[in-house]
Structure formats: structure tokens, C-alpha cells
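Quick one: structure for this chain?
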Amino acid sequence: MYFKSCLSIGLAMGLAFCLGTCCESTPALAQYGGTGDGSALQGGVSARDSLTRLDRSRLTPDRPNMTINLGSPARGFFDNNNTLQSGLARTERVPPEVFRAWLTDNHATFALSSQTIAPGLIVDVAGHWDHADKTLTKLGINYTHIGTGDISPEVLSSARVLIINCAGAVKRDRLQYIREFVQRGGYLLTTDWALNSMLEQTFPGYVEWNKGVNNRSIYGATYVNPDPVLARGCVRNAPWKLDAGAHLVSVLKPDSVRVLVASSEMAADSKGHSGILACLFPFGKGYVLHMVGHFDNNAAIALGNFLPDPAPQIRISLRQALAANFVVAGVTGEAIP
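Got it. Here's what it folds into:
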């Protein structure tokens, strides 16, 4: 079974605290304007930026109130209006055929060749708790699976999408490779504990673990800022499954980081926190999507295709649909508004 045991949570939180303490002295990103050749980059960085100490006094913490975009700009986006309470979530058996049908319905052209994508375009980095490869397989999307020690400039030179699964235990000497990958146009997806294990260090000053953890396993989630790319085939309100001890996120740079999915239930449970479940920011020519939670089914029972948080209308989970849209956008090179 792929879930974090209660015994491991205390140890992991202690380790996370140590990591967080170490990160206080970690060099961080300076603000830069353009590039040497005059081309514009997203995220306010240069093509050859360096790492400098982060001045935390200049950071703006995340805003507790999320503005909900009431439009439905994405094709296949279901606006089911009322907030879905976590108590209404029901575990269902969702076979691979349902995942494949979702991909075909929302990315018909991509689906035609998704199983024969060139090796190395999508790189899935093994994690201890999350297993994105299982969902990619159900969707019928070809990928390359590697260990954290295999992350290298050679591997990333041909990659378009990089997935760092929870717990994201990537050694520091590999982080610069990941940073450069995104800067030149790569799409990086990170899940749960990867937030403080590698994301904070790789892109300091954008988001961080606020030392909070979830109080329940499923929350009612709202897609607060849908767009035509990442919200395709998604729903406004759906349940969102979290493993025990999920790391809650705070936004340090709200002008750059866009909150995609949030939970009013989580915000109410965690005083002073915003209830952020998924957020996105551009960096260089690429993008970073972080999700609180996993890309895989994340069910208590590993066998049998059980899904604890199927979303209304689409049947796969909202977190899986969002992550899948990001992967497709990365492979096809579609810009995210």
C-alpha cells in the first residue's frame, strides 16, 4: 500500500523541520530584468541568473482570500456551482478505460500518438510515496522512468516534462539541472513533500512549506482560477484526496504564483493558511506546477483501481485531470495563460 504510516509521519516531519532549518541559509534567487540577448523571459529572471541570498523581508506572503474566476473558459470545463463538501466523496473503482476516455475526450489529437511518444520527452522521477507512472500508464501516455540519481543534463536535454514524485528526495547537486531545465522551457510537476525537499531550494522565493499539515484525508476543493489549458476536462468543485502529513503551501511571490485550486475547508482547519491545493508559476521560458497531494490514485487499497476522490462528471480525480493537462501542455509546447 502506498500511504504514509502514522509512525513515519513523526520522523518525516522531524526531517522536514531539519530541512527547513537548513534552507534558511540556502542561497536564493535574485531579481533580474532581461537576458543578455534581449529576449524576454517569464518569471523575472535572466538566462544566466545566479543564486544569491534571499531577502525574506521583501517577500509578500500569500493572501488568505482567493478570488474565484466565475468564468468557464476551458473546453469541457464543468462549472458545478456549489462547493462540494469533503463528506460527499465516495471511493469508486475507476478502470484504466475511464482514464483513457478522459484523455481522448479532451486531447483527441494528442491521444492518437500518446502511447508512442518518443522516449525521454516525459521523465518521471521515482518517489517513495507518489507514483505518477501508474496514472500515466492508465492514461496511455508513454514516459521514461528514472531514479533521482539519474537526473542529469543529458537526460533533461531532450525532456519537455519532468515529474518529481513525493517525497522528492533529490540531492542538491541535481537541483541546478532542474532549474535550468525549466528556465529554457521545461514543464516541472512536483507533488506534496517535494515542496520542501527540493522545490523551495530550486526556486527560492516563490513558494514554501508553511510547516502546516492536513487534518483530514479528503477536502472539498474549488478550481478558483480555470484557464483554457489546465482546466480542460476539469470541474469547478470536487473532492481532493491527501495523504497523511501532506505539506501545506504558502505563496511568497503572489504576483508570479497563481493559485489554481484551493479549499475553504482546509483554510478553516488551518488557521492563518490559505487552503492552497495547487499553484503554478512561470520561470524563464517554462512553468512549475505544484500540487498538495499526489498524481496517482492514492487509495488505501493499492489493488483494484480504487479512486478515493473521483470528481463529478469526469470520474477521474480533479488532481489527476489538472496534472494530466499540464503534462499534455508540456509535450505539445502549449503556453499557459
